[in-house]
Amino acid sequence: MNNLGQPNKNEALAVDARQEIDLKVGVAFTRFQTRYFQGKYGNLDSSVISYGPCQTPTLGFCVQRHQEISMFTPESFWVVRPYIQKSGFRVELEWERGRVFDKEVAMMFHKLVIDGGAAKVVDIVKKDDRRPRPQGLNTVELLKVTFR
């Protein structure tokens, strides 16, 4: 802000030209779409079917996300959640591996924990944990919130 200069005239004119092109293409294509789709689908409110250059990529994101959600097939997984109990206190232990998608492997780890019988503390980590600030709801984030 301390070193502001004169705006570049050519860049400013390019922005003006882009806005005008977007407006003209939007008006023409909106008129075309509205006339094309009128009466084709009974449940479509086709009084005006708007088009804008920003709507096309946004629609692409929405369709892609819808396809990901539609084609998703849930997969079973197992988590080992060991804990220790001493003097009436229960302490949950963290397992770095996280989810295991193979039941036999999960059962093997479960057996190792059960058969171990003793635990040894090898490291203590102290960390401050804070909740991150909420993200802005861009198109993708808005869809994630919507479909939860």
Descriptors:
single chain; 148 residues; mainly alpha; two-stranded antiparallel sheet; two-stranded antiparallel ribbon; 4 strands; Topo_IA_cen_sub3
Structure report:
By secondary structure, this protein is mainly alpha-helical. Among the domains are: 9-72, no CATH class; 78-116, no CATH class. It is built from four helices and four strands, in the order ααββββαα. The protein has helices at 9-37, 55-71, 103-116, 139-146, and strands at residues 78-79, 83-86, 89-92, 99-100. The strands form two sheets. Strands 1-4 form a two-stranded antiparallel sheet. The longest helix has 29 residues, at 9-37. The chain is elongated, with a radius of gyration of 29 Å. The two termini are 42 Å apart. The model has no long low-confidence stretch (mean pLDDT 82). Belongs to the type IA topoisomerase family. One of its GO terms (cellular component) is nucleus. Its EC number is 5.6.2.1. Pfam families: Topoisom_bac (PF01131). GO terms for molecular function: DNA binding; DNA topoisomerase type I (single strand cut, ATP-independent) activity.
